[in-house]
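Researcher: I'd like a candidate sequence for this fold, 290 residues long. If you have to choose between options at a position, lean toward the conservative one.
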């Protein structure tokens, strides 16, 4: 199995497509927002044409109002990998959601982490603006990995940290062996790619996509809608900010997210890093897979 990781807009999907088409492989997405249906442009999903050329898994498997977490991803991604292998094909895991990648490859035992409905209810009723600061005190490592706007995940980390009285324990079940490839373009190149991607989303119709989601009654406070940009596109559609402000705020959020992604992935010593602006990792991947 091959895993391709790194920051958003760093070229992971394009590389995965090239590898998959060369090896006749299939792609298992590790993106916590591409699981939701109807959120294609705002989450930069592979196009329908790309998905016809290469079979993709774990995309469009949940409704925006449906609960989807790392435990469900772990279960469904493992099943997808086993199904791909049963047909004699290679699985390529690609995505930037570090918790999903670790849950699948490193075997984080998410089901064994403690739960306490009373603690969770207390946290969910608290002022959301205070939760992230509390997490930084209890578990700085978890706080460095989580998006402060992802209140559900912040609450879950806080629930566990509160119960155990400190950092979230890193429990393990059997993992899956994979060659881990990381793409790390220079920061200025990545920032330019992020800015370009956000504007391309607008040109591709992300405002119309957002309008359709709101028209379906999708609550902007749902975890699915924390995908970068939707909250700002909604503000623009409601006349609260102009389009350029929405674009600037979306790009700002994605830049911050890309830094958190690198904080997460840099901790994995098994990742072999490449600067895709100077080195094409395709030949190395093909040699490893041979």
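Model: Candidate sequence:
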């Amino acid at each position: 199995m091959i895993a391709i990781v790194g920051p958003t807009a760093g070229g992971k999907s394009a590389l995965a497509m090239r590898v998959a088409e060369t090896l006749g492989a299939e792609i298992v997405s590790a993106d916590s927002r591409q699981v939701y249906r109807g959120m294609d442009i705002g989450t930069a999903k592979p196009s329908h044409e790309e998905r016809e050329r290469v079979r993709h898994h774990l995309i469009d498997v949940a409704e925006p109002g449906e609960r989807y977490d790392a435990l469900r991803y772990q279960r469904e991604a493992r099943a997808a990998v086993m199904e791909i292998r049963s047909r004699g094909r290679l699985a390529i895991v690609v995505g930037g959601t570090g918790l999903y990648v670790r849950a699948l490859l490193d075997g984080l035992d998410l089901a064994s982490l403690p739960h306490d409905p009373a603690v969770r209810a207390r946290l969910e009723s608290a002022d959301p603006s205070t939760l992230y600061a509390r997490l930084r005190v209890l578990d700085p490592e978890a706080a460095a990995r989580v998006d402060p706007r992802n209140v559900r995940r912040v609450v879950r980390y806080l629930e566990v940290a509160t119960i155990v009285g400190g950092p979230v324990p890193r429990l393990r079940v059997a993992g899956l062996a994979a060659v881990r490839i990381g793409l790390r373009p220079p920061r200025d190149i990545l920032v330019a790619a992020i800015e370009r991607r956000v504007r391309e989303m607008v040109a591709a119709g992300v405002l119309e996509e957002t309008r359709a989601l709101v028209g379906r009654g999708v609550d902007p406070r749902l975890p699915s809608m924390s995908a970068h940009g939707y909250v700002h596109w909604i503000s623009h559609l409601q006349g609260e900010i102009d389009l350029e402000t929405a674009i600037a705020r979306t790009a700002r959020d994605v830049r911050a997210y890309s830094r958190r992604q690198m904080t997460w992935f840099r901790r994995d010593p098994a990742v072999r890093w490449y600067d895709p602006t100077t080195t094409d990792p395709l030949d190395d991947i093909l040699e490893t897979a041979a």
